[in-house]
Amino acid sequence: MIEDKVRKNNKLKESVRALVRETWLTSWELIRITIPVAIITKILEEFGLIDYLSMVLEPVMNFIGLPGSLGLVWATAMLTNLYGGIAVFAALAPGLDLTSAQITVLCSAMLIAHSLPVELSVSKRAGAPLLPIALLRVIGAVVYAFLLNKICLGLNIWQEKATLLFKAPEQTGESSDLMQWTWTLLQNQGMIILIILCIIVFMRIFRKVGLLGLLEKILAPVLPHFGMGRQAAPITVVGMVMGIGYGGALIIRETSTGSMTKEEVFNSMALMGLCHGLVEDTLIMAAIGGKFGGILWGRIVFSLIITYLLVWLLQALAAKRIKQQA
């Protein structure tokens, strides 16, 4: 009896240690990005360059119902990753009067188009052409964000003032005191670490209860209708749930065996580009205020519709080309 209790305690301690270790390793990799990004954002803000960048990005952001300055958040997420975007968001959002709908729109755009240098390289290695996938993700993000904003306004949903996790530095005179800004930055980094911890815990729980497997089972029968065969569909589902890095690696392995056609690879990477990281990435965006109706369910429906229309169009063009050649 005592031995069983000791064994359980040791197992619990090992689980806690593993959780702390994974949280720290993940957090450190992201802190190395988020702190420099936050410092650069502060410098841009102090020199008034945020306003100039906002003017450049304002037309696109206004098109999707957001302040121009939030364009810097999305641009950072596209060039780095979601956490880089969060770092800029933490610096800028407390000074803006945002609604929950606006944060959901921003999060949705970031979820569709982020980490482009890394993820597009994975898509290319998997065999999908670079430019079409890049355009699909960026244009798809703008279109979905535009539609989501119109739906939110039209139905008057999520129009309440957003509650932000991140703090703004207290103002001392004309500009923020440097020490106060540094302290606020550290507090926001602590919040990011807490977010990561929660996400890791939730991911473990989801794996334990079989939620990830359930998502795969729900989506797998649907995907053959989107230009993917038996070999491509399960891999695509894994990529949608776990992320492009994981799904792309599986596709790279499958394409090397010749079991997937070029069309299947493109269709798979197109769908994954629009809709991936359904669990982890969605939880990240939910943690900063995104609503699940927009960042998860709406994104899935939009991605399936766009991929279906894209596959239909490509098949129609291919049939027309064959007919002309005959």
Could you describe the 3D structure shown?
The chain has a two-stranded antiparallel sheet with strand order 1-2. It has one domain (2-325). Residues 171-176 have low confidence and may be disordered. It is globular, with a radius of gyration of 22 Å. It starts with a helix and ends with a helix. It is mainly alpha-helical. Helices cover 77% and strands 1% of the residues. Helix 7 runs parallel beside helix 12 (262-274) and helix 12 runs antiparallel to helix 14. It has helices spanning 2-46, 49-63, 71-79, 82-92, 100-112, 116-126, 130-155, 178-209, 211-219, 232-242, 244-257, 262-274, 280-287, 292-325; strands at 171-172, 175-176.
Descriptors:
two-stranded antiparallel sheet, 14 helices, mainly alpha, 2 strands
In short:
This protein has 326 residues and is mostly helical. The protein has helices spanning 2-46, 49-63, 71-79, 82-92, 100-112, 116-126, 130-155, 178-209, 211-219, 232-242, 244-257, 262-274, 280-287, 292-325, and strands spanning 171-172, 175-176.
List the helices and strands and how they pair.
Layout: H1 2-46, H2 49-63, H3 71-79, H4 82-92, H5 100-112, H6 116-126, H7 130-155, E1 171-172, E2 175-176, H8 178-209, H9 211-219, H10 232-242, H11 244-257, H12 262-274, H13 280-287, H14 292-325
Antiparallel strand pairs: 1-2
